[in-house]
What does this fold into?
Amino acid sequence: MDSGGSSDMTLAFELEALKTLADPNAVFSGARQWTEYVGVVSEKPTYVVTNFTRKHRVRQDFFSGPRGVEESLENIKSQFDTDRHVFVGTDEDDVAVAEATGWEFLDVKDAAEAAGWTLATPNEDEEPETTSRDDWP
It folds into this structure.
């Protein structure tokens, strides 16, 4: 992905954006080659983010904690002093939050195309349904 010529960047993924990617671990591993810090922010409770990142073996430098996305981005920006702060999201709400906090916004589909990340197929990240077994009493 073209990082604008500088690897002095903090990259934050909104959890829903990260869920649209086929291999979040590979995305984070690759992003570490051209960013200083990479992590996840979300309006969801901390345990939801933690469960997702553990399941996909994503090692993050920061996460939302009990804060919302806007407060998290403001906090991260003050703690991680890099030339650029880029927020990867999915919708107009994410654009508005990025603008309100002084972060650059990048749509996950555009980021995936530029970086060569594979988007997940629909329902790929959902747990498989359990079916009843005829051979089980």
